[in-house]
Specification:
It contains three helices and two strands. A two-stranded parallel sheet has the order 1-2. The chain is 37% helix and 12% strand.
Length: 99
């Protein structure tokens, strides 16, 4: 069953993803976001695949979004919240009013 397969097993290394990329692009049109964006990506994530997050980052930057993109070597999908906690807290605290 596809719902039980990890996304990392659905695309072989070196596969031509041109048609998939077109379909995903149609679902995710370039949208300018007014606020700052934080992307946190574990390099060992097999659920939210790193190359798609890198592509998303590039697309957001290309339309002029202000993106902070942090990668965490060896961190998988389950560990990203803990690994990125300090960076995420600093990101939000620097943007919240003090006092």
């Amino acid at each position: 069953m596809a719902a039980q397969a990890a996304p990392s097993t659905l695309i072989r290394d070196g596969a031509d993803t041109t048609e998939l990329d077109k379909a995903l692009e149609a679902m995710n049109p370039a949208v300018k976001i007014n606020g700052p964006i934080l992307l946190a990506q574990g390099t060992a994530d097999s659920t939210a695949l790193p190359f798609y997050t890198a592509q998303l980052n590039s697309e957001l930057v290309a339309v002029g979004d202000k993106v902070t993109y942090n990668t965490y070597p060896g961190v998988d999908h389950d560990g990203i919240v803990d690994a990125a906690e300090a960076d995420a807290m600093a990101f939000f605290e620097s943007r919240l009013p003090s006092g």
